[in-house]
Design goal:
There is one protein chain. It is built from eleven helices and five strands. The protein is mainly α and 276 residues long. It folds into two domains: 42-61 and 164-276, Chitosanase, subunit A, domain 1 (Up-down Bundle); 72-143, Chitosanase, Chain A, domain 2, CATH 3.30.386.10. Strands 1-2-3 form a three-stranded antiparallel β-sheet, covered by helices on one side. Strands 4-5 form a two-stranded antiparallel sheet. A hairpin with a 4-residue loop joins strand 2 and strand 3. Helix 10 packs antiparallel against helix 11 (243-254). It is globular and about 50 Å long. Aids in the defense against invading fungal pathogens by degrading their cell wall chitosan. It catalyses: Endohydrolysis of beta-(1->4)-linkages between D-glucosamine residues in a partly acetylated chitosan.
Length: 276
């Protein structure tokens, strides 16, 4: 109810008398409720942290912090997975490159890569370039100039790798560093049924420690997870260099930097990197 700023003396006296007659507890004015604000992303899904995650992964995958320059990247690195390409290392031999080009073709039919879909379906599961050479790498770089293709890479990175890692990390009660450790593991190993997949790396860690959500200590859990990750990496010659764990993630963990706060200094394959 609106109350005028000015009142007569008589009215003021009457109000004063009325208040004296009311018990003190009844005179108390309840505090206004706190304003409701939108809940910010917490953990690796915070935009600034996500960008840091992309830089750290790029340092290992591309020896560069400039992850946005990697949309056009493509080469066969001789790991038995055919062509490796893009911001997260989509591979022609593991299905995620096929999924990406199929999605890109859904949102932009007739794109420069659409004609390679039959070949990508045939080479899936191996290292063959049949039907891709000699122009696939050139056309990939051309596609990377298209904002729709870059957006498609972002979409598939999040759907297949980033979002599942963050979801599992939050479910396990780990902070930003732990969520990043999960993300990097899924990027390299996928989340299939083989012994070195992310889910089985996590299962192996569970035999040694418990995540915070199950009453465990976060640092102990992440050490167990990274131990299991190193074991998985050593099962394959192409991934046997474990520096992306030993001189990067372990460094952050030993410093107690569970929130992945900057500044960050680490090494991968002997190269030094810094984020201020």
């Amino acid at each position: 109810m609106f109350t005028p700023r000015r009142t007569t003396l008589t009215l003021g006296a009457l109000l004063g008398a009325a208040l004296l007659a009311v018990p003190a507890a009844a005179q108390a004015v309840p505090a206004a409720p706190a304003p409701v604000t939108a809940r910010a992303a917490t953990g690796l899904d915070d935009p600034a942290k996500k960008d840091i995650a992309m830089q750290i992964v790029s340092s290992a995958e591309n020896s560069s912090l400039d992850w946005k320059a990697q949309y056009k990247y493509i080469e066969d690195i001789g790991d038995g997975r055919g062509y490796t390409a893009g911001i997260i290392g989509f591979c022609s031999g593991t299905g995620d490159m096929l999924d990406l080009v199929e999605y890109y073709t859904q949102v932009k039919p007739g794109n420069v890569l659409a004609k390679y879909l039959p070949a990508l379906r045939k080479v899936n599961g191996g290292d063959s370039h049949a039907g891709l050479d000699p122009n696939f790498t050139r056309d990939w770089a051309k596609a990377a100039q298209d904002a729709a293709f870059r957006k498609a890479q972002d979409h598939e990175r999040d759907r297949v790798y980033f979002d599942p890692a963050v979801k599992q990390g939050k479910s396990d009660g780990v902070g930003t560093l732990g969520q990043f450790a999960y993300y990097d593991a899924i990027v390299m190993h996928g989340d299939g049924g083989d012994a070195t997949s992310f889910r089985n790396i996590r299962k192996r860690a569970l035999s040694k420690a418990k995540p915070p959500a199950q009453g465990g200590n976060e640092t102990a859990w992440l050490n167990a997870f990274l131990d299991a990750r190193v074991w998985a990496m050593k099962q394959e010659e192409a991934h046997s260099d474990t520096s992306r764990v030993d001189t990067a993630q372990r460094v952050f963990l030993k410093k107690g930097n569970l929130n992945l706060n900057t500044p960050l200094d680490w090494k991968v394959y002997g190269d030094s990197f810094h984020i201020g």
